[in-house]
Amino acid sequence: MKITINEINGEYTNIEGALVVFSPKNKEGYEFRPPAAQLDEAMNGALKKAADTSNFKGSFGQMVEVLAPTGVAASRILLVGLGDMEKVTPLLSERLGGKIINKLIYSNEKKVTIVKGQLASHAAMGVLLRQYKFDKYYTTEKNVKKPSVEAVEFLTHKADLADEEFKEFEKIADGVIWARDLVTEPGNVIYPESYAAQIEDLTKLGIEVEILDEDKMEELGMESLLGVGQGSASSSLMVIMRWNGSAKKDEAPVAFIGKGVTFDTGGISLKPGAGMGDMKFDMGGSASVVGAMKAIAGRKAKANVVGVVGLVENMPSSTAQRPGDVVGTMSGQTIEVLNTDAEGRLVLADCLWYTQDTHKPKFMVDLATLTGAMMVALGQEYAGMFSNSDELCEMLNKAGQDVDELLWRMPIGDAYDKMINSDIADMKNIGGKYAGSITAAQFLHRFVNDVPWAHLDIAGTAWRQKPSDVAEKGATGYGVRLLDRLVKDNFED
Ligand code: BES
Ligand code: MN
Ligand code: ZN
Fold this sequence. Notes:
By secondary structure, the protein is an alpha/beta fold. The protein folds into two domains: 2-158, Leucine Aminopeptidase, subunit E, domain 1; 171-490, Aminopeptidase (3-Layer(aba) Sandwich), CATH 3.40.630.10. The protein has 15 helices and 20 strands. The protein has helices at residues 34-42, 46-53, 90-104, 120-130, 159-184, 192-200, 214-219, 223-229, 284-298, 344-359, 372-378, 390-403, 414-417, 436-445, 480-490; strands spanning 2-7, 18-26, 29-30, 63-67, 76-84, 111-115, 151-156, 208-212, 237-244, 254-264, 304-314, 325-327, 335-337, 364-368, 383-387, 407-409, 427-428, 453-457, 463-464, 474-475. It has an eight-stranded mixed sheet, sandwiched between helices. Strands 1, 2, 3, 4, 5, 6 and 7 form a seven-stranded mixed sheet that branches. A three-stranded mixed sheet has the order 12-13-17, with helices on one face. The protein is elongated. It binds ligand BES, manganese (II) ion (MN) and zinc ion.
C-alpha cells in the first residue's frame, strides 16, 4: 500500500475514489467544515442529509458512508467524526487513520484520499500499522480476502513537514511490522539458525551483527542459556547487534536484551497440549529488540545502541535438561533448574551478564514473554515493569504513554528475592506459588550489577486476541515503538 502526503488545494469535488473528510463535534452537534461543506453543496445537501439520517454527532471515530454520490467525482464519501477538535492528539489521529483504513480496506476502492489538515503524518502512521495482515500462508482465494486499497493519499497543510515526519514514522513501522512477522511465523520457520540469518540482514542498514555459537558460549560459561537449548535439534545462538549512530564514538551504548525462545514446549516440564501452539510467540521480546534496532538504524538515530538476543528452542528429548539439574552461568553463580518451563530467565541470565560485562552500557532494558502470571496481574493492556532505577522507569513510562505501549511498575525487593534461594545452589529458577512474575524478575536481578536496569514482562501485550484501532489481532510488535521513543527522547546527540 502506497501512502503519500500532499498539500491541500481546497478543491474536493473532483477527487476520485474514496474520499474521507472529517467533522468535529461542537455544542450544537457536528460542525460542517470546508471539505464536508463544499462536498455537501455540490451534492445538493445529500451529505448532511445522510449525516442527520444516521444520527451522526461528530463523535470521535463515528462514520457515515455515502455511496455513489451525485455531483462529485468521488465514488464514495466517508464522513468521520473528530470528536472535540481541541482534544485531537497525535495518538488519536493515529487511531483515526487506523479506523479509516480498517473501514475501507476491502471496500473495492483502489484509491483513498483523506483530507486531514493537522497531524496527517500521525494518521498516516495509523493507516500503515492497521493495514498489516499476515496472509502469506493462504493459498486459495476462499481463505483470504484481498485488500482492494492500493494507494492512500493525505491532503494536508504544510505537507512538506508532515511528509518528512512520516518518512521517519515509516522506518519505525518497518520495525514494528518486522517484529509482527517474526512473532507470527511458526516454530518450524523461525528457529535459532533461521532467525539469526534474518537478523543478519540488519547489516544492510549499517548495524554490526555478531553471532555467538554454542562453542563460543560454552567457552564463556553460559551453561544456563545452553541448558535450555540442549534438548533441541537446533543449536542455540546469541546475536549481538550494534548501532553506532552517535557522533561521540566512545559514548557508552544503551542496551536492549530480548528473550528469543523460538518455541517453548516447556521441555521435560512439558506444557499441556491445549494452546501450546501459542508458544511460537515466546521469542516476542527478542522481536521487539530486533524490530527496534531496525527502526533506530532505519531512521539513523544519533545514538549508540546495542541489542542482544538469546535464541533457543525449549524441547523435551533424551538430551534435554532434567528438572533438578544444576547449571553454571557466565556470572559464576549456579542455578538449580527445578522447572524446565521457567526457561526464559535462564536464557536472559547469561544475556544480561554478557551485555553488562562486554558492552558496559548506560542502562539495560530486557523484554520477555516471561510469565503467565503477568497476564493474570495486568491482562493485555499494560506490560509489567520491574526495575532498580526510578529514573529509567520514568523515561520508559513517558515513552510508553507517547506511543501507546503502556507500562505498569511492579515491586521488587529482598522479601521476594529470598523466595528463589535454593537448597543446593545459589538460586532456583522458580519461586513459590505466589508472585510468579516478581520472583522471575528477582531472578533476573541477580544477574544485574550496578547498572540501571528494567525488565519488561510482555507476556500479555505481545499478542492480542482482538484487533485494536492500529493493529490486526495477533502479534502486536509491542516494544518496538517504546524502545525507539526511549532512545529518541533521551539519548540522541
Ligand atoms: N513463555 C512462558 C510464559 C507464558 C506462559 C507467557 C503463558 C504467556 C502465556 C514461560 O516460559 C513459562 O512457561 N513460564 C512459566 C513459569 C513457571 C514454570 C514458574 C509460567 O508462567 O507458567
Ligand atoms: Mn516456559
Ligand atoms: Zn517461555
